[in-house]
Design a protein that fits this description.
414 residues, mainly alpha, two-stranded antiparallel ribbon
Length: 414
């Protein structure tokens, strides 16, 4: 494999080049023998995929393996506690390796530790693995620069913890409405696909004329039974079409992101959670000493809604030409007036991190309230919908009985 490297020679001169080696560690060792101190080394684009046992995990490259947020939280929390207790980084990493049960995570930690022994910083070693998001690497890099790596781990753990909590709230907010919608659809299918057909033959045997409501439901039942495959096909086509557009069309993705923000009850949750994540990351990154432009770019990338992310990019463009953050944000309606005011106070007082932290807490509280409102609103709405569906079917089944009584009465008279 070929590796590109950046190194310093004995005269403190910067050297860049490429080297052939079987593994990254072997490449570092070769460069050391040549009197070079490696500052950065990466696998060259287009080179063969790594094949050593340490780089592969059940047929997959551990460098491309995703790492769960809960695992990252555990790693950062434990490393932070050990370093705060006075245990050096190398020893802390070895303890983590010995206690880790997941084979692939153990291999990742082991390779990072080997790179630390070979002269890499922790942030440089972590860059080789896609499982570590850039925002965490930047915080750790800042911690290495200011000598407070334990504090950097604590900040990473806090971001992870808040992110997990926010993701959990969003899942719970949308799981309940989806469950109710599925319940209503299942109820319609059961009533129209299985219950109504049993009454159809009964009514037909009496020869009574069916009311319009009953006839309409019977026709819908026949369609559901006879063309269920067509409905599944249409639903699948719509799903595939939306997935394809979302993957290939930037305009569709942007339009869908805008629509999300305009949906009643759901829009406020999406906007507030996006701004909460942005403010939380900005607060942590600025407090870690990362420049405003880089902190804003990293925070922007972590925002899930594409439209909010696009608005943050406009703010970043203005900030890069000298406009203050609050003035740039005031141009866009997605940012609350209170957010603009708090950022202005933070910029003028030199306490931007504190202002952003307070706004993150505020948006998280608002997101909780909006989530509760959605849950509270969906329960009566879906109860009414279920009542209407069941009531309509019951009425449709009862109405023909009056016609049957008339038929029986006429037959009796004769």
């Amino acid at each position: 494999m070929k590796f590109k490297y950046v190194a310093m020679n004995a005269r403190k001169q910067k050297k860049e080049g490429a080297i052939e080696a079987e593994t990254q560690n072997q490449a570092v060792a070769i460069l050391r023998e040549k009197g070079l101190i490696v500052q950065d080394i990466q696998q060259a684009a287009g080179s063969d995929a790594p094949t050593s046992i340490w780089q592969m995990d059940m047929g997959g490259d551990i460098h491309n393996k995703s790492i769960k947020k809960k695992t990252l939280l555990m790693l950062f929390s434990q490393l932070g506690m050990m370093m705060k207790a006075g245990i050096n980084l190398s020893m802390s990493m070895q303890i983590m390796i010995d206690s880790e049960k997941d084979a692939s995570i153990k291999k990742i930690l082991r390779e990072i530790n080997e790179n630390l022994y070979n002269g890499f910083t922790l942030s440089q070693a972590m860059k080789n693995f896609k499982g570590f998001p850039t925002v965490y690497i930047s915080i750790i890099e800042a911690g290495e620069a200011n000598g407070r790596l334990d504090n950097a781990f604590a900040q990473c753990a806090l971001i992870c913890k808040k992110d997990i909590a926010l993701s959990g709230k969003l899942r719970s907010a949308f799981t309940y409405p989806i469950f109710l919608i599925v319940l209503v659809l299942a109820l319609i299918i059961i009533l129209c696909g299985f219950v109504l057909p049993t009454f159809k033959d009964t009514y037909g045997s009496f020869g009574a004329e069916l009311p319009g409501l009953t006839l309409a439901l019977m026709n819908f039942s026949d369609f559901l039974i006879g063309y269920w495959w067509l409905m599944i096909l249409i639903a699948a086509a719509i799903g595939v079409g939306c997935y394809t557009l979302n993957k290939n069309s930037a305009e569709f993705r942007m339009g869908f992101a805008k629509v999300q923000l305009k949906i009643p009850l759901i829009g406020p949750i999406v906007r507030q959670s996006s701004l909460a994540r942005f403010c939380r990351l900005m607060s942590t990154l600025t407090d870690a000493g990362i420049p405003i432009h880089k902190a804003m770019a990293l925070s922007r990338d972590a925002v899930p809604n594409l439209y909010v992310k696009d608005q943050i990019q406009y703010v970043l463009d203005d900030v890069q030409i000298g406009v203050t953050i609050h003035e740039a944000m005031a141009k866009h309606s997605v940012f609350d007036a209170i957010l603009v005011s708090m950022i202005r106070v933070g910029e003028e007082s030199g306490m931007l991190g504190d202002s952003l932290f307070k706004m993150a807490e505020l948006f998280e509280d608002q997101s909780d309230e909006s989530t509760q409102k959605l849950t509270d609103a969906m329960t009566p709405i879906m109860t009414v919908v279920i009542g209407v569906v069941v009531g309509t079917v019951v009425v449709a089944m009862i109405l023909p009985m009056f016609g049957i009584y008339n038929v029986i009465g006429d037959a009796t008279d004769v």
